[in-house]
Automatic annotation (TrEMBL):
Gene source species: Lichtheimia corymbifera JMRC:FSU:9682
Protein name per Swiss-Prot or TrEMBL: G-protein coupled receptors family 3 profile domain-containing protein
Record bears the keyword Membrane: yes
PANTHER family registered for this protein in UniProt: G-PROTEIN COUPLED RECEPTOR 156-RELATED, GABA-B RECEPTOR
Keywords from the named record: G-protein coupled receptor, Glycoprotein, Membrane, Receptor, Transducer, Transmembrane, Transmembrane helix
Ranges of biased composition (kind: Pro residues): 818-828
Pfam families membership: 7tm_3, ANF_receptor
Positions of region (Disordered): 802-831
Length: 1035
């Protein structure tokens, strides 16, 4: 079957029907010739609906072999696609019929040829086609596309590349599978990105091709983060000859123009390259990239030879007599006359006659030794699955049924694009039909062209991969990605160095640059690094403060270690001070390297030293504030509030989390230095961390630091009300000031570092905030310590709480220095008092010494426990109640560490198993009903009772001695095995009332009361003998 030798005259020849069998696809089809059209459809379509697709190609055009080959191979590819669509029933309930129509039935020219092309397109529309594939040339495609778009019929072309066909106002239903010239910009930009060039410059011809492609290149470069630092038009049709050289020089004289995109064709492209070579811009600093096919190297070399011949004539003293006249002649007319008569002057010849660099002819092998790149359509798609399948099927087809088929080597990219035209159109129809709930109705609407408004180009984006790549179309109907060969002129010869498939570049060879160099040019002018290093005055000031801070930290560590026995604080130990100072040194180390010229070593040291130092410092300060917050109201505390074990546990925990994150983060990421341009002539170097876990681990490290800081700030706020007259907690105020300072410094530094756009602002403020925060905190924490140790020379204090110092005891007992008399029996009472220095006096010693005399101002008597006469109902009964001033901690059972000790006034009613407590500071309290009391600590320093409540809270009460611990535990539990009698109203003798829910009475036996009094007196005697020995007893 040959469709190329049909009678081209339109006449009726009904009945010429032939049947054929495609053995490869097991497909029988019929071919009918009528009215100048060839209709190809399945022999037995069954009950399926017919969908007519028109093929509009110049079947009888013989003057151009390229056009003929495109027509023959393209039609065979479309027929093959139709066979596969019908055999696979790609469109549910429908089959495809091809109607082939000749757009060039007779060898006519001019208006007559245009007329018969339009008639052919209208003929297809009249035969009921719902889609059209064609034409070959862009000009004739524009004619048919205008008709089909008006009638809302989709049309696809696999050869038309004119940019005007992207005009949606005229060709809204047209799309194409061939990459357009615009994709040359995508190819060039992908190559630029692969080489890491941040800037480009554009030299474009002042015509439709240059203007449109340059505008598209600027837009795409911006979207990809590539900056355009200059652009210049040249070689406009109306430009005078003398302006061509000036325009080229205007762009290239800019020192920032290093990566030059040349957007021009043919003569304009050659002129730009030769003029650049003459001016010396073909060098190691410049790279030339052609956005479009580059003239072959023979043409370029021939132009250079002619250029050099003119230079040689000038060297011999020859001149051109009509240069002034030609100078103002426009480019278009001179080029046209030169091509027709050879007597006119081309722009490149004018440049040769007028250039100042005529003493040095262009050496073609040197000037074009490398650094010139271009891109060409059509790549070898072998290895790509869909193309390999197409090639395999193509090689098995019968050439009688499919002309140009039967040979795998002839399955070119043109075949693939023609095949994709019909396949993508059928997939678009399939998507519409399959998505309908009534496919029969949808098919009828499709056949009658009632769905035209739904077949704009994006409707054919079905996500399938065609044999020439992904079939993705933009809203203009153009392919979104294309396939190109990457070409590089090396030593005067054009060489393929890679491919671009579906927008992804793959370089198979190393690009060669000017002089045969393999080193990638920077693409930047000579730039200055603006990293301050240790050279600027501000950097020197920051480094000076850093050195001062390190010196002070080392000095403080040395002095405190030497005079460690003179530490008067009950908060800080030698270990805590050394850990804090070590944290300061790490922070200063990070600032020192942060201020340096950035190297790869800095990129490792900065995060490691900063995060370790920050964790150590805030860990120590947070723990100190927490312990102060928890126990500062506890008068029985005898040991330092922060033990070394607690300190090491907290610091080690924070360091472990930070260390694990750093150990995973740094090896798992690609750490490198990155040059970031600031202006066209300046840049700065920063550390760049690339890796899948980078963001997650940085967030973890930042979260740990933020939690430490937030905890420290909260505790600083909670401990702000600690009295100033407690010397052992004097350091608390210094710690709080340091925490506030670190918080505000971190807040400002973090905000500036992540939001400031100016490099110097970000760099200097970040470093300054770190130095300020560290230095102020260091001084506020350790100057008072050193002042106390070395200036005041205060003697070491007896910091054991709950006892009066020997010196002050002697001042109180100034009657001869002997031991005080033992306590006399009587109702047990206890008192708390403080001296002017703030030491807390033992209750039993005050009782034993009779310290509360009228001549001892400043000491006040307080009840610890007392028997009360209570009134209940109509009867006055002898009940049991105890009151005391003791440290109390209300503990929420699920979060016990969030509570703090507070001195409270307690009134216990053991018979009804509840007690009340009122804070001495806030004068607020509550009534607590309990189950029982247990001893949870009876060590030498801590005597604590836990009173278990009925709800979610428990109460901890601390006493001074073991005997008192057992006594109070017995009091709480004295009635726990009995059901408490209900009470209605209980009042103390002083008028204070307590209310419950009943009207029963409280009864207590005298024997129990007397036993309690005896017990109280017994442990007071034991305490006396234990403290003053047997000699005192005998005295």
């Amino acid at each position: 079957m040959s469709f190329l030798h049909d009678d081209p005259v339109n006449h009726t020849n009904v009945g010429r029907i032939a049947y054929y069998t495609d053995q490869v696809h097991d497909y029988e089809f019929r071919v009918e010739h009528k009215n100048g059209s060839t209709v190809i459809s399945p022999r037995d379509p069954g009950q399926r609906t017919e969908l007519k697709i028109g093929i509009l190609l110049p079947f009888h055009q013989t003057s151009d072999n390229v056009t003929r080959e495109l027509t023959i191979s393209g039609t065979s590819a479309i027929r093959m696609a139709a066979a596969e669509i019908n055999t696979q029933q790609r469109i549910p309930g429908a089959y495809v019929t091809l109607i082939e129509k000749d757009s060039f039935p007779q060898a006519l020219e001019g208006q007559e040829a245009i007329t018969q092309a339009v008639v052919s397109a209208i003929s297809l529309v009249q035969q009921g086609v719902i889609g059209v594939i064609g034409d070959i040339s862009s000009s004739w495609t524009a004619l048919s596309a205008l008709i089909t778009s008006t009638l809302e019929i989709p049309q696809c072309s696999f050869t038309a590349i004119a940019s005007s066909l992207a005009d949606r106002s005229q060709y809204s239903y047209f799309y194409r599978t061939i990459p357009t010239d615009l994709l040359y910009a995508d190819a060039a930009l992908s190559f630029v990105a692969s080489q890491g060039w941040p800037y480009i410059s554009l030299l474009y011809s002042n015509d439709d091709y240059g203007n449109q492609l340059s505008q598209y290149a600027v837009m795409k470069a911006k979207s990809q983060g590539i900056l355009v630092n200059g652009y210049q038009s040249f070689y406009g049709e109306s430009d005078p000859l003398h302006q061509v050289s000036d325009d080229i020089e205007e762009l290239l004289s800019n020192p920032n123009s290093r990566i030059v995109f040349v957007v021009a064709q043919d003569e304009a492209m050659t002129t730009a390259l030769v003029a650049a070579a003459n001016k010396g811009y073909m060098n190691s600093d410049h790279v030339w990239i052609s956005l479009g096919p580059l003239p072959d190297t023979t043409t370029i070399q021939s132009s250079i030879d002619g250029f050099n011949a003119i230079l040689q004539s000038r060297q011999q003293g020859q001149t051109h007599q009509q240069l002034d006249w030609y100078a103002n002649s426009d480019v278009a007319s001179e080029s046209l006359q030169s091509n027709q008569t050879g007597n006119s002057m081309r722009a490149i010849d004018y440049i040769a006659w007028t250039t100042q660099e005529y003493q040095h002819p262009i050496d073609y092998p040197t000037a074009f030794s490398g650094g010139v790149f271009s891109f060409a359509l059509g790549i070898n798609l072998t290895g790509y699955g869909p193309f390999d399948q197409l090639q395999h099927t193509w090689s098995q087809l019968d050439p009688q049924l499919y002309p140009s088929a039967g040979n795998a080597s002839r399955a070119s990219s043109n075949v693939a694009m023609a095949y994709s035209c019909l396949w993508s159109m059928a997939d678009g129809f399939r998507k519409i039909v399959s998505g309908s709930s009534n496919m029969t109705q949808m098919l009828n609407q499709l056949v009658t062209r009632q769905l035209g408004d739904g077949f704009t180009p994006t409707a054919f984006n079905t996500g399938d991969n065609g044999p020439d790549g992904p079939m993705i179309f933009n809203e203009n109907g153009d392919r979104a990605v294309g396939n190109f060969r990457v070409l590089n002129i090396q030593h005067g010869q054009e060489t393929q160095i890679g491919t671009i498939f579906a927008g992804k570049i793959n370089l198979t060879e190393t690009p060669v640059y000017y002089g045969g160099s393999l080193m990638v040019p920077t693409g930047l002018p000579a730039k200055t690094c603006i990293n301050p290093g240790y050279h600027t005055p501000i950097s020197l000031v920051i480094v000076a403060f850093t050195a001062f801070g390190v010196f002070m930290a080392l000095l403080a560590a040395l002095l405190i270690t030497i005079r460690r026995r003179h530490l008067v604080s009950n908060i800080s130990s030698l270990l805590s001070c050394l850990l804090e100072l070590l944290g300061f040194i790490f922070i200063y180390t990070s600032v020192f390297f942060f201020s340096a010229d950035r190297t790869l070593m800095d990129c490792f040291i900065i995060p490691i030293s900063f995060h370790i130092g920050y964790t150590l410092l805030l860990g120590c300060l947070s723990l100190k504030l927490y312990r102060i917050y928890a126990v500062h109201n506890n008068i029985y505390l005898k040991k330092p509030i922060v033990t070394d074990r607690q300190l090491l546990r907290v610091c080690f925990g924070g360091l472990m989390i930070t260390g694990i994150a750093l150990v995973i983060w740094l090896p798992a990421t690609e750490v490198q230095t990155l040059s970031v341009p600031v202006t066209l002539t300046t840049y700065f170097v920063r550390c760049d961390y690339e890796g899948g876990v980078h963001s997650m681990l940085v967030a973890l490290i930042t979260l740990v630091a933020a939690l430490f800081l937030a905890t420290a700030v909260m505790l600083a706020i909670r401990t702000r009300a600690i009295p100033k007259n407690k010397p052992k907690y004097a350091e608390c105020r210094h710690i709080s000031l340091a925490i506030y300072n670190i918080f505000f410094s971190s807040l400002i530094g973090f905000t500036v570092f992540h939001s400031a756009t100016d490099y110097f602002t970000r760099h200097y403020l970040s470093a300054s905030m770190i130095v300020w925060g560290a230095t102020f905190s260091l001084l506020i924490l350790y100057l008072p310590k050193l002042h106390t140790i070395y200036i005041k020379e205060r003697a070491r204090k007896n910091v054991t709480t709950g006892r009066m110092s020997n010196t002050r005891w002697n001042n109180i007992n100034n009657h001869g220095g002997g031991p005080p008399p033992p306590p006399s029996p009587g109702p047990p009472r206890a008192f708390t008092s403080t001296t002017g220095g703030g030491d807390i006096i033992s209750i039993n010693r005050m009782l034993a010494s009779g310290a509360f005399s009228s001549n001892m101002p400043g000491l006040t008597e307080q009840k610890v426990h007392q028997h009360h006469r209570l009134a209940a109902g109509e009867y006055g009964v002898d009940s049991e109640a105890y009151e005391a001033h003791m440290p109390v901690q209300v503990v929420y059972r699920y979060f016990p560490h969030l509570s703090a000790w507070d001195m409270k006034h307690i009134v216990l009613f053991p018979r009804v198993r509840y007690f009340s407590f009122v804070s001495e500071k806030s004068h607020k309290g509550c009534v607590f009903h309990y189950k029982e009391a247990v001893i949870i600590s009876s060590s030498g320093d801590e005597h604590i009772i836990k009173v278990r409540g009925n709800g979610r809270s428990d109460v901890l009460i601390q006493v001074a001695r073991q005997q008192e611990l057992e006594l109070w535990c017995a009091r709480f539990n004295s009635y726990c095995r009995q059901d408490p009698p209900p009470m209605q109203s209980v009042a103390t003798t002083t008028g204070t009332s307590l209310t419950t829910t009943s009207a029963s009475q409280l009864i207590i036996s005298d024997s129990i009361e007397q036993q309690h009094k005896k017990d109280d007196y017994s442990w007071m005697l034991e305490s006396y003998h234990e403290e003053y020995g047997s000699a005192s007893s005998s005295g």
